[in-house]
Amino acid sequence: MLGYLQRIGKALMLPIAVLPAAALLLRLGQPDLLNIPFMAAAGDAIFANLALLFAIGVAIGLSKDGHGSAALAGAIGYFVLTKGATSINEVINMGVLGGIMSGVAAGHLYNRFNDIKLPDYLAFFGGKRFVPIITSLVMLVLALVFGYVWPPIQEVINNIGEWIVGAGTIGTAIFGFLNRILIPLGLHHVMNTLVWFEFGEFTNAAGEVIKGDLSRFFENDPDAGIFMTGFFPVMMFGLPGAALAMIAAAKKERRKVVAGGLFGVAFTSFLTGVTEPIEFLFMFLSPFLYVIHALLTGISFLIVNSLDIHSGFGFSASALDFLLNYGISQKPLLLIGVGLVYGVIYFIIFYFLIKKLDLKTPGREDEVDGEFSENTSFGGNRDYAVVAQHYLVALGGKDNIANIDNCVTRLRLRIVDMSKVDEAALKRAGAKGVVKISSSDLQVVVGTNVEFVANELKKL
What we know:
The protein is mainly alpha-helical.
């Protein structure tokens, strides 16, 4: 089940990846920036059709080869499900959950029926063409079922959402803590999707009901942003402070060697909000330190919402999103003040605990043969084919890999025999961390260039 939920989480990343483009168009088109109405309308159209995008994206993400017929089936399934269910009960509003369910069904049906053989007189409708057909029939049955059973489910979901939103600063703090704690399992995307696109409602000037903290923020809901603002002090200042603490705590003779890489991941966190390269440097060295990080994230939400600071993002809580959305944020300068204090707090806590617990953070670990050799170090070798070859050997060869996938920073692998995986060799090849989810599910933390490595690994 854990492995399956991870697949769902990974599949959600494809439709979520379009949000930065949508947010950019929507913001740049506003009167306080470029004042180009058609640009703003174009960005708003993406947010208005998020459920359909989730249906398409999840279907592609779950299909075994990402074929377009899976995407078509996801869209058809979504239309059949939602229109069929609302024809039975017009109060039904399945939101992005309807899109996710349609995408899940379409993805699995594609994997099952994409190569089906039909009699000669029906051969035209066989193979991949059969997938949208069977998807529409399955979703028709589900539409009939959900037309009667979804209203009470919808009420429960709305009540949970209202409780989380109504819990105020405490609710946001719990969300911030859980968001970080779930990262090692890769399940935070599932929770984020509900909070950012489903919980909480706002009626805009056109009378449309907008759901979810992220969507409501870009529709200028003054109460939105409470589930995003708390990430800014952590991603822009806190984790870079942690990276600086690792540099300061490194052995003198190795400090210069690790400083370049750590400055890079710190700047990545500040500029883009991609934090996993830093977090995986200490996540498994000291779970206690990672829990402290999760608690500090929760406390950040507590602080910014207590101060009534509101901001948001299209991709992540980065400097780019902060500057882009400065004009529609509340008390953004105060957010910078909180962030600077957070950077100092992270530096002090991390430096003290790294020294006190003698953690083997970069520059403090025992020497490993080839650790800083450019021939095997990812940082020194940009020939991704060569890097992938090193990974392939460390993973036990091609016969030991049943499936290869990737998210923003990680290889997500299905392994035949976990005992053949050489973790030390993976780290020498440049991996920032290795996560064994189960006896067959493995994640290798590569960094933001993971897609290039994954593509070369698939070729091999």
